[in-house]
Amino acid sequence: MGIRKVVLAYSGGLDTSVAIRWLKDRYGCEVVAFCADLGQDEDMREVKKRALSAGASKAYLVDLKDEFVREYVFPMLRANAVYEGGYLMGTSIARPLIAKKQIEIARREGADAVAHGATGKGNDQVRFEITYYAFMPDIKVIAPWREWEFDSRQSLIEYARRHKIPVTVTRRRPYSIDKNLFHTSYEGGILEDPWTEPPEDMFSMTVSPERAPSRPVYLEIGFKDGDPVAVNGRRLSPVNLLKRLNAEGGRHGIGRLDIVENRFVGMKSRGVYETPGGTILHIAHRAIESITLDREVMHLRDSIIPKYSELIYYGYWFSPEREAIQRFIDETQRGVTGTVRLKLYKGNCIVVGRRSPVSLYRPGLATFEAGEAYNQKDAEGFIRLNALRLRLKRTR
């Protein structure tokens, strides 16, 4: 039995615009486009129209911004997740949500298959497809990049022009862009040379540190049980809070990253990222934890951050192991409550204050002056006991 209907994850970009026409020609099937609004700062109604003009029989436009920030970004930030020391995974965390909603639409439409525009060399193909199979084990998956005759983005551009398919990628900007409310990523094209500095006019969320204001700005981020809830004393919804911090961080050049990372499929890849609000929240969350989280709980949690981050990067958001780790992390976040004061200045986000109604920090204990409830003589026995195994080793 052939494929009658495909639901395509449609971004409005080059790959998925070409994919609509290609799927129809290759399989003789109906193509339903699914446009996920994750705050990518586009006119999503125009994206929907673009899908229809490219040949889709129907186009769904679903606003996922609140769910994205509340149920995906914030849990990841509670874990201080970071891949290979720098990447805050703005693309990685978006794919499971898109794929989950795509399967919901496939069920509603009675589709035979789902499709995506990820390349056969990247991580996104894995993230999409693992999620598809997690929710619909027998679904047929079509990955055009692994099947079609095109071997480069330039050949796709030429195909789009021949068939009058509206696209946004041009020879002048020959790199791939992925954007959502959490970040913007750039890869491919001129960025494939890791020695080449990214052009300044490429960036869309942040100004360069050189062009940032010459005076710093101070922000206070309020947290409740590990989640940010307020900026400068004003409570905000997750979406509006992230928007506010994106604006402040972007104005001061916060959150740029240029990294060569290890893809899940085995190769190294150069990516350039802008994550202004996410960078501020990552730094602020670490700061509030420093005065509210027990030492051993913190160290145990920190030991699993690399594994947790790897699971997100590889596409295993809906795996039982990620969900189990998340339950542990969320338990550690009870009581991670208080306020962090930050100074933003020319690309730097500096912690300058933290306070909490449930702080474990006791000035009377930490002071170098005469303190309370601590007898310095007790340290002698503590040290001798901890040194015992080393002393025994030397006396053999």
Task: Briefly summarize what is shown.
By secondary structure, the chain is an alpha/beta fold. The chain has 13 helices and 14 strands.
Structure in words:
With about 400 residues, the chain is of the alpha/beta class. It has a domain at about 5-65 and about 90-175: Rossmann fold, CATH 3.40.50.620. It is about 40% helix and about 20% strand. The chain is built from 13 helices and 14 strands. The protein has helices at about 15-25, 45-55, 65-80, 95-110, 125-135, 155-160, 240-250, 275-290, 295-315, 320-330, 365, 380-385, 390-395; strands at about 5-10, 30-35, 60-65, 115, 140, 175-180, 185, 215-225, 225-230, 235, 255-260, 270-275, 340-345, 350-355. The strands form 3 sheets. It has a 5-stranded parallel beta sheet, sandwiched between helices. Strands 10-9-8-13-14 form a 5-stranded antiparallel beta sheet, with helices on one face. Strand 4, helix 5 (about 125-135) and strand 5 form a beta-alpha-beta unit. It is elongated, with a radius of gyration of 24 Å. The mean pLDDT is about 95.
